[in-house]
Amino acid sequence: KAMDRGESLGKGKRRFASQKAWGSAVVNQSDANLVVWLPPAAQREEAAPKPPPPPDVKGKKRKDEYYLAELAWEFWGPQASKKQFNASLVDGVYQTLKGSKFALRPVMALEYSQYLENYLWPNFGPEKASHSYLMSIVLMVNEKWRERVPPWEAFQSQPEHFSAFFQLLLDACLGELENSPSVAEHTFLLVFLIHCFNSLEVELIRQQVLCLVSLSIWTNLLPSRREHELQSAPKLRRYWLSILKKDKLASEEARSKAAKERMFLWKKIQQFLCVLENIKSEDPVSEELVHYCERFLELLTDLEAQLPTRRFFNVLLDDSHLVVKCQLSSLAQRESEGHLFRQLLERLEFYKGFEINDQTGSSLTTHEMTDIHYRKITSLQHVAFRHYPQLKSFSLSNVAAVDTEEALIKCLGKLDATVLHEIGAYLHLLPDPSAVGPPQLSAAFLLRLLVSHHKRRPSQIEALNDTPLYPTEQLLWDENVVPSEFYNGDTCLALPKSNLQFLTLHDYLLRAFLLFRLESTYEIKEDIEDVVTRMKPWVTPEGSTEFAGWSRMGLPIASFSIVEVGKPNVGENRPSCVRADIAVQPSMKSPIRMEWEGIRKHDVCFLVTVRAQMGLQERFDWSKPFVPQVGLVYVRGCEVEGLLDDEGRVLEEGAEPKPSITGDKRTYRVWLDTNQYQQDMESVVGGGEDPYETFNVFMRRKPKENNFKAVLETIRDLMNTECVVPDWLHDIILGYGDPSAAHYTRMPGQIKTLDFNDTFLSMDHLQASFPQYQIQCTLREPAQQAPPFRLTFPEQRLSSSGKRRHPDSHAPPDKPTLIVEPYTIPNRGPYPYNQPKKNQVPFTATQVEAIRAGLQPGLTMVVGPPGTGKTDVAVQIISNIYHNFPGQRTLLVTHSNQALNQLFEKIICLDIEERHLLRLGHGEEELQTQKDFSRYGRVNFVLSLRLELLREVQRLQESLGVAGDVSYTCETAGHFFQYQVLLRWEAFTSKVKPLAGKVDGVRSIAEGFPFLRYFATAPQPLFKGEDFSEDWQVAEGCFRHIKKVFKQLEEFHAFELLRSSRDRVNYLLIKEAKIIAMTCTHAALKRRDLVDLAFKYDNVLMEESAQILEVETFIPLMLQNTQDNFSRLKRVVLIGDHHQLPPVIKNMAFQRYSNLEQSLFARFVRLGIPSVQLDAQGRARATLCALYSWRYRHLGNLPHVLESPEYLLANPGLAFDYQLIDVQDFNGVGESEPTPHFYQNLAEAEYAVAIFMYMRLQGYPPSKIVILTTYNGQKHLIRDVLTKRCARNPVFGLPEKVTTVDRYQGQQNDYVILSLVRTKHIGHLRDARRLVVAMSRARLGLYVLARVQLFQGCTELRPSLSLLTKRPLQLHIVPNEFYPPARPVDSAPPSGALAVQSMSHMVQLVYHDYQTRVTALKDKATAEECSMEGVVSADEKMEAEGGSDTMEPSNEH
Q: What is the pTM of this model?
């Protein structure tokens, strides 16, 4: 009956004129649009009727979508009434999906309608689980994973059923249900298993899947192979015997379940091999079958790439000989269908033989791998010597002579299948031929098996070192490795994955190297396509290639020549260097010519060969493949050495005056990649074309996007060196061991007493910061209990679960005692600037805990929600480390220059010596300070300070009446201090100290102080003469001031000896600076230089660590050489927020499939590493905070948010501090897509600009308003509207910024207007992390423009949407209120509010208000007889631009 109703949908002949909504489904004219369930806004408080059928739906797929949308509305949508579960309905839905061949749109619609959460899983029971039911759950989980939505949360409602569900799933995978799955269904089941094995951090999943890869799976091994493996690992034999013993005692049901789990992967492998054997070379093969085979290899690779799943499975995989059988299969021999299959097989073979001990998890060195290889070869030689005289020469040869693939084939290839089988049996690779009867295996298979097990494999490091760093044309346009930007996640790729765990540090860095290289390759590919397309290559009648267009970033090559090929280094076969000269003729336009002449040393450029295929009048078609159309043949990278002068010499950078070059041509000397050159020359020797004689395009890239080569070289250097991670951090980075092992409470050498310096403002503040302790102060007098404080903590340990526990777990839960010692900072001198700078931030208890953790050795994770003071915490940690450990050096790293500057500006305001601060990299010019903290700026500061200090020495000399030139150098000043100053001070102290407490003691200080004339410039009187102790402290402070002058001069003595700026900069970096700040990109670019300088540091603090790529987080930990094979790193502090947006990855395949967007911070959170979450925000109103606080645990508000006047006053002219404004179509159009993924919404753009104009008319400063959107297309559209409406009108001006939500992360403003753009499908805003960023940018007011119907149905956004929709969905304004605020926030406007009906209504209101005010100003000017030319001019400008028409929304955008 339901199917009949579904079939009836869509009858009729009418066509849609525009998008319309029928209750539950949004219907779009284009077939590409998705039909999803949407609750109507008008009926959200009452039961809504079922949606009537649309007038016309063309095609079966659209009928299926309407059928599913109607069922969702009736049975499991949020508005659906509670109905009895109907199993036949699940079957009907699944048959609909199956009939559509599991089309993506219906599956997306079902998942979005919460089919799994509201219907499938709540009603699940093993007795109800039909094949359709089971597959429906699998499809929903797979779709959630594809959409990057948390897939396992739905199962937490009934976790007790998951085990039964998983057992049914295993049966389905092996085809043991009544309805055996089809190939497509088998593929979906494989994808589900892949997701399970990639979610080992979820306990519900881990309990089920680890049973499939435990030691018991060795039941499937050959008995001889199993015995061989148990002999090599005696510890495993005890476990094996224990398993056998438990099996004997277990019940029949338990044994049956255990047997199924143990044999699952073995049976699945045999099932796969049967499928593979049935693919014949001469028969056509279905795409579904190929896809299944590819997914199965992906599953096996994932199992091999994680130690918990690899430990026992690797032997099982080897025993099945799957890799060899796949290599010999007909699918692998197919050129097109088997291309991705072969690539996946190569990855599986690589991980199968990875350099790791499967049992211990320790990395195997090259020497250990050689030993293993030699044992295999000698075992083969022993067998040959004992049993096969015909192999005598082989058995007596040295290993190096017979371990290559060619040598093994030559020796073993002459043997028949029987002998080869016998050899395999002797080596425990095959069963005894006498037990299995006549030979069933081909000689080709047996030979390949023996050769693959015994051939010498190249070292992974050697293979990496031979890999070219620049991408070539084969890599750039290989869709299996560098997919296009439209990857939707429904296919597998030949890419590594960055998941939860890694095998070794080599594996960790190798995956990072490959993924970073491929992400860079994708960006390079886009640049090449853009440049070549703009240059418009065309083929002449003679067959040559000419260029009809031009590109700013590309030029035709006039000539190219190789000028040097260096001899190979010892032990290498590639040239040591390859240099070439490239002549081009830049544009005569001065800016472009200057850009080309501004190419710097080490910039990366590309050489391209294009052989045009199109005529001059033919146009490029973006829908077709790029390479065949333009005729692109070769792409090679190069690194610029420099521009050549007229005499052929490389111009040195920084030369003044800059040499001039005559003529129009410019010649660049470049370095070519030696690895790539070697490969190309080998190809030429084999008869191939020489690509270096064909280049005709020279392409450059933007410098900020061109750092990939330096980063790749840094990663490769790390893999080639003894990369030593601190012992306490090593296992955690790989994802193993106790997650809390690096927490300070579990670390040896925990520091009991810490100086918190100026962290606390008072004793009350300290007591409030440690509610878990009983405070005991060493001083009883309240007046003496003033900061700063030293704190002594009791012994504290963390349980294995990561929770803090009392030292005596059996003792009553009394509060432990915290000993507080107030102390006085020694007097530093009589001048005001001698007084220490003090912190003014009243840190909360959780912030104090984060500061405390950061001071202790180990790993500290701080999760900072928006506005919770992450930067203040980071700055205080740095300051406290600086004062507690003055001999240690701290490295400060952030993702962006902006964040680094914000951090540095706050550090400058604390009590830290300015000479100890250093800012590396670009961006220091944006610091909001007059001082230069760059390398050369710091050198200049030191040199100028040196002169100033020497002048002080001269003044001191004159005050003491000492003759001679003692202030000439730092060295002479040091002698002066030693023989004049120090002697006078010692004489003074020996005379005055004995008089303490006597009548003449106080007077003797002032009379005998030797430096009284020197301090005549200090505030007077210097000594009050009232108390001996007080005056003595002043005298000591004065001497400390003098001593500090000479101490600094002693440190600056090296700058007198070092003459060059470079040497001075390097000395400053490695000796003088104590706090060194840089971005993660700068750290990756300059690692080699820093290591060569012997750069050292003890602590690393990273801000924005959740936005930094994993490898870019790891590299800053490795910027120094080890000491005695140990890392001196003591502390790592990571501060970030994994609930906000991750690192930006441009290619969707690397983001979704390879999980490249996962930061190290986010992975550590997944691993369960203890963290401190800051729990009080001070940025936004409490009402605005509620829009995103649900995402965090116990996020509250700081007192000033509830008490400060700016938060207690309403936004003038607006009835609410936040609103969700429903924006309908304008002229029948909602969202549009001029180019793929370039989404725009004219109605929302006009509405956003109208709100901005209204706020400006109410008096809001433009600097306090920001317009944000979720798509680049909408950003450009809003900027266009602003340019037309506001830019040239001084009444309005432009807002502080118009940008995307992603770009605005980490920034804030008082008022935010937000456009969500989409009206057909929710898009990437379904990612709750993006919603958190969007909702948390505003401090005082947030106004969201959206299609409410669309977003209300999204489960992930419901907590925020439920609050937003409680308020009216029309903008409510108060036109008679003006800025600045005056009305209390909790009171209604006295004159009421005006509800804006639509975007057009808002535009009209703004226009009339503007005209009224301009007229009033004109009348006032006339009455006062004043000139108002500025305003009249502004009005005339608007009228000239179109008068009232300019305020009317148009379709021109």
A: 0.89
